[in-house]
Amino acid sequence: MTHANPLIRNVLWPLTLAIFAVAGSMVFKCMTPFVAVAVVAAVTMDVRRGALTAAGCWALNQASGYCLSGYPVDQYSLGWGAALGGGTMLSYLVARWMTGGEGATLARTAIAAVAAYVAYEASLYAVALAFGGVHTFTADIVLGLAVNNAVWLAVLLAAQRALSASSPRLFGKPLRLA
């Protein structure tokens, strides 16, 4: 049996997540599934690759926002971009800690996703309290973002499952569903 080139195996799934994140950003303006990406990265990759993937997805989102979507380049926008990056990494760390990393069960992943989303929103709320923007934390908006991340989490987990089942040498082992 031949084995996939480790470089391909180590890059293909993170690249797939990045494509999903940027596409999600473009289709659903300002509703990038940062938490979903962070959780999936936490449970499907080693700690280094997962952290780099979560940070890379945030960076690609910011680049596409500023270069393609015309985000204003001002102190407020850049500050919120940094806050989103911090929230993304916090959600990654929470998910990693709660699931134990690679090979987590679906149940542990779901519980970790809730905790990661709470941590993400709490970190952004703290920034909003300090620098303005609390008005964007209405129940409708926070719930809408939670639903968006939940849907994206399901899509990304299904994609990981399908890709890993069809080509485990390229995409690794599928998550356990029990």
Structure, explained:
This protein is mainly α. The chain has one domain. The protein has seven helices and no strands. It has helices spanning 6-27, 34-44, 47-67, 75-99, 106-131, 139-166, 168-171. Helix 1 (6-27) packs parallel to helix 3 (47-67), helix 2 (34-44) crosses helix 5 and helix 2 packs parallel to helix 6. The radius of gyration is 16 Å and the shape is globular. The model has no long low-confidence stretch (mean pLDDT 88).
Write the layout of secondary structure elements.
Blueprint: H1 6-27, H2 34-44, H3 47-67, H4 75-99, H5 106-131, H6 139-166, H7 168-171
The low-pLDDT segments are none
Distance N to C terminus: 29 Å
| SSE order, one letter for each helix or strand | HHHHHHH
User: Helical proportion?
Assistant: over 70%
**What composes the largest sheet?**
none
Q: What's the tally of helices? A: 7
Structure characteristics:
transmembrane, single chain, Rod shape-determining protein MreD, membrane, 178 residues, transmembrane helix
Question: Summarize this, please?
Answer:
Keywords: Membrane, Transmembrane, Transmembrane helix. The chain is mainly α.
